[in-house]
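User: Teach me something about this protein's shape.
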Amino acid sequence: MTGLRTAPGKLGYFFSCPTLFMGVQLSYYASPQFQLNQKNKALALMYLIEYSVILTIFYPQVGIMRFHKTTEYAIRVMVHLAENLDQRISTRTLADRLDIPYKYLGRLMSKLANAGLVDVEKGSAGGYRIINELDSIYLYQIAGLVEGLEDYERCILGFPECSDENSCSLHDHWVTPRENVKNMLYQTSLLDLQKNSIDQN
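Assistant: First, the predicted structure itself:
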């Protein structure tokens, strides 16, 4: 690491001072010298919560990584269709079964159909189904269609350039989780998810 870089913009000072102070506090609480008792447990938890809240509010990309809401819906839909390959399912039925807003889902299904991930048949007996082989559809295709894959390549603190040679203060901690997420996206097929779902039911 070539030096401490903090988040760009007006919040850089805010990020570098209070959160670093909390980091020092948390480091102390994790040290061998720290005597774990109820009072110190409470103090450590308080600082951890404050630290997490600051990062979540001002730097949401630093928090626990999760899919965009639309991607979550798309994966739910694709897995449900994979579990019911022998039938066409309407948008209304999908919305009711998966607890997804109907109008929102209608736009999503059109996007999935236009991309060829699902087949659609109109009419009262129509609906959506998957016609491609499940082992040919991967999570990266779904996420890429819905939200794009740029977030999985970007600096976690938002710097336009961040590398091993010119890294931000979180780069070394982010490289491995980022690669794990990318591997999951590119190596997990809809067939894998279908099998997991069947095994759990």
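Now, about its shape. The longest helix spans residues 38-58. The mean pLDDT is 75. If you'd like, I can walk through any region in more detail.
User: That's plenty for now, thanks!
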